[in-house]
Design goal:
By secondary structure, the chain is mainly alpha-helical. It has helices spanning about 15-40, 50-115. About 0% of the residues are buried.
């Protein structure tokens, strides 16, 4: 099945703007976390007590979440591609069914005209 220009997935209006705002907010949050981390490291062993270690672990978890968010578009693309394939297969099956129905209709019409 050839995908037509109309079958291209379309995002809702304003989707790109929303993603840009989310990306900016995440960049600001990451920069702030990085600054806090640098400030903690600047204080050396004074800040790296139990609380400091917890903050550093929290920063690492935050970075992991950022990486997870960065992977979201590729996962969404994979889901869209899978759905598009399934819909294409269903469309092909329906077209075949419609062709069979049309052939049967013609056969019945031919028989009816002979009767």
């Amino acid at each position: 099945m050839q995908p037509s220009a109309d079958s291209e997935p379309r995002l809702p209006p304003g989707w790109n703007e929303m993603l840009t705002r989310v990306e900016q907010a995440l960049a600001i949050a990451e920069a702030a976390a990085s600054q806090r981390e640098q400030a903690l490291q600047a204080h050396g062993s004074q800040a790296v007590g139990l609380a400091g270690a917890g903050v550093l672990q929290g920063l690492e978890r935050f970075r992991e979440r950022i990486r997870g968010l960065a992977e979201c578009p590729s996962r969404a693309d994979a889901l869209v591609a899978e759905a598009d394939t399934a819909l294409g297969d269903a469309e092909d099956a329906l077209q075949g069914w419609f062709q069979s129905v049309e052939a049967t209709r013609r056969t019945l019409a031919s028989w009816a005209s002979k009767a």
